[in-house]
Design goal:
InterPro entries: IS701-like, IS701-like_DDE_dom, RNaseH-like_sf. Pfam families: DDE_5. The protein is an alpha+beta fold and 360 residues long. It is 41% helix and 27% strand.
Length: 360
């Protein structure tokens, strides 16, 4: 926080910024929805278009136990335990364009007891905080995308009840019914013919051998299953879609695009230091992350549309959510970010200066 207020020419006091993140009455969920609405509008989505909500989690290592929610977590991507915070995160995607959406801290049961909060699983947090509240343009189709860790018939059923679809990965031991016979999905890779599938994701060509068929998952119902592998000797992987009309290629393409949430984590942290918080309060940390995501979105949309920063902020309607004083802090923050972007001579310098600026 000390660097935030010192970085702004004529900026407010450190106490003012602490008040903004800790005590001021503004709703980060409304900011997230406002940001999403503007993204949808600028992306030109309309009736029949697809919007993707990619869900994942991420970790922030911390020393000591002063920060709320810290604990021992197993980071599957690193293959080790870490001491720190765990966050459920999401990003919105239309075509090749994406923005970070929301981040919510996951609390273990002992932490919820200490903070007098109700314990929620990560799938419950994802549904209650990110999926159910999200408003999308009328007539568009929302697909929620996640990996096999998040698979839950309860979660998928709730998403379907909202009128949305799910594309996700399945574990190889998942039980399915094919022509009334129960099998593991891995058994399909041994008995069926694969065909070549090629498509482009994030500007890169992807080639797979794949097969697709409609199967039934006992606790869920009928889904479209895709088994794919890279080359004849590649290990098979299994994806499913609740939208039976999607093609094999579309399902693979949608799941490959799930990686956008990982890129959003990396870019939001490198450029805006969203993991570099030194606040200790859960709500303040989540607010800080949303402002980091908002700043990231403003810069990206200003760049892609050619509009001025102030124009993007005005058109986004943030002023309707934050009162004039709070909006002033946001505009000051964005203007400093603009100066950093304009005066940085390399991506490395930009990343360092952004991380330094957002170190709170």
């Amino acid at each position: 926080m000390r660097r935030l207020h010192k970085s702004i020419s004529g900026g407010k006091s450190r106490t003012a910024y602490e008040y903004f993140f800790h005590d001021a009455k503004w709703d980060e969920d409304s900011v997230a929805q406002c940001k999403a609405d503007y993204f949808f509008e600028e992306s030109g989505v309309g009736v029949g278009d697809r919007i993707f909500l990619n869900v994942d989690d991420t970790f922030v290592e911390k020393k000591g136990d002063e920060t709320q929610g810290v604990g021992k977590f197993y980071d599957h991507s690193e293959g080790r335990y870490i001491h720190g915070n765990n966050f459920v995160t999401s990003c919105l995607q239309v075509g090749e364009n994406y923005i970070p959406h929301k981040s919510r801290m996951y609390l273990k049961e002992d932490a919820t007891e200490a903070m007098d909060e109700e314990f929620r699983t990560k799938p419950e947090i994802a549904y209650e905080e990110m999926i159910e509240p999200l408003e999308t343009p009328k007539g568009t189709d929302l697909y929620v995308v996640f990996d096999s860790w998040w698979y839950s018939s309860d979660l998928i059923g709730k998403i379907n009840n909202l009128g949305h679809e799910v594309v996700c990965r399945l574990k190889s031991n998942k039980k399915i019914l094919v022509n009334g016979e129960e099998k593991n999905v891995r058994d399909l890779a041994e008995n069926l013919e694969f065909e070549e599938v090629a498509f482009k994701v994030r500007g890169k060509e992807k080639e797979y051998l794949a097969l697709s068929l409609e199967v039934k998952i006992p606790e869920l119902g009928r889904v479209r299953l895709v088994v794919s592998r890279k080359g004849e000797d590649g290990d098979p992987r299994y994806c499913m879609s609740t939208d039976l009309d999607l093609t094999m290629k579309e399902i693979l393409q949608i799941y490959e695009n799930r990686w956008s949430v990982e890129i959003a984590h990396k870019e939001a942290n490198q450029k805006f230091g969203f993991k570099e918080y030194q606040m200790r309060d859960k709500e303040a940390i989540e607010r800080f992350m949303q402002i980091s995501f908002l700043s990231w979105t403003i810069i990206v949309l200003a760049h892609t549309t050619g509009k001025e920063f102030e124009t993007v902020i005005e058109e986004m309607g943030i002023g309707e959510i934050l009162d004039e004083v709070k909006l002033l802090y946001l505009i000051e923050t964005v203007m400093v970010i603009k100066r950093i972007v304009e005066t940085s001579t390399s991506k490395e310098e930009l990343g360092e200066r952004m991380a330094d600026f957002f170190w709170s």
